[in-house]
Amino acid sequence: MISTFRALMMAQEQIVDLDQQLLKRKLRITESPCDTEATVNDRQLKAFCSNDYLGLANHPVLVNALAEGATLYGVGSGASHLISGHSIAHDLLEKRLASFLEKHISQARTLFFSTGYLANLTAITGLTRLAPRGETSIYSAKLNHASLIDGVRLASAQMDAAVTLFDHNAPNKLIDLIKLEEKPLKLIVTDGVFSMDGDLAPVKELLQIAEQYDALLVVDDAHGFGVLGQQGHGILEQENLYSDRLIYVGTLGKAAGVSGAFICAQDPFIEWLIQKGRPYIYSTATPPAIAHTLLKSLDLIESEEGIKRRNNLNKLITIWQQEMSFETWKKVPSCTAIQPVIMGSNANALMAATLLDLAGYWIPAIRPPTVPQGSSRLRITFSANHSPEDVRELIIILKAIEQQVSRKQAHE
User: Fold this and answer.
1) One domain for residues 227 and 373
2) Residues 6+ apart with CB under 8 A from 191
3) Rounded to an integer, what distance in angstroms lies between the CA atom of residue 25 and that of residue 199?
4) What secondary structure does DSSP assign to 292-352, as a single string?
5) Domain range enclosing 245
6) What is the pLDDT of residues 140-156, one digit of tens each?
7) Are residues 270 and 343 part of one domain?
8) Cβ distance 406 to 329 under 8 Å?
9) Taking 80 as the threshold, does the pLDDT of residue 286 lie above it?
């Protein structure tokens, strides 16, 4: 038995150990709305670190919509969806989201959640409950987001699901793993856009595998919804996919600029998750004012303004890819708003982030366990509110900082 005192000592010792490994994380308190400039400790920093890809988080239309939603519905939902917390605003939002994806999933229906983490936990654990214990196999991409990983782990613990990891860059190898599978329920689980590398999953190939080997394909499009596709409907639109095997998870706190997430699938799957998805059943519903605001956000995403914002974002990505080059650091060939710069060691990443901070930029260092050992990096993200000049100035600063870090390494 561990005493409270001993537990406190263990916590302190392990925090010191994290600090010595340069893995301790620290909170920074912002004093301004989410935008391309942030006020932190009374300092103005140029922010290239948020997931507000379309620059909608402080859009006046959405600010007014939130105030209007609070006037209409108050500031809380009061209970879970299945008790008394399911508002007309939630219902309207779910129907509107289903219309986004009806070209890709027949009988499309959606379920709204307060976070993407809860949505992924619900999708994976709920679907696993379709089969008897021990009768499900899950094939999960190695670099999936933590919420997918935790959903898979929970499904394994609760329902004895067999778990196999695969490299999303080698979809053909997945065939070798799945072709001999005899369990009645098979799930292939992948990010749409991988959050730390910015590359796209080969969803078309994965869907073909799912159809050939009788599996469901769960796609977490957290970083694609709103920015991929002509109308911003995400990776399914961009890849022109249609299948009844798709279980699509979208996030509404990134490109949509507000908060929450949703699962979209055929109606029977959604009805099952309402009955058996424990994170959904036992969570208080998101305030209806948030759902009301998201309806306006979806309008913006599909509007001419949304198209212009996506075009500007793609222009910034092109400038970065064409004009940024490093001597020792590694740039990733990403076609998304996520543009990592990989520098290997924790020390190098922290030094670069510190020098950027001194130069007036907010780009945190990303270290294990968020990324694999030896691949610490800067995770640069663009917003439609950035300008080409912003990106070119960042390029100049980063090249200078790379030289500083290289000189320091040479003298050590």
Assistant:
1) no
2) 141, 143, 144, 145, 148, 168, 201, 219, 220, 221, 222, 223
3) 25
4) HHHHHHHHHHHSHHHHHHHHHHHHHHHHHHHH---SSSEE----SSEEEEEEESHHHHHHH
5) 60-302
6) 999 999 999 999 999 99
7) no
8) no
9) yes
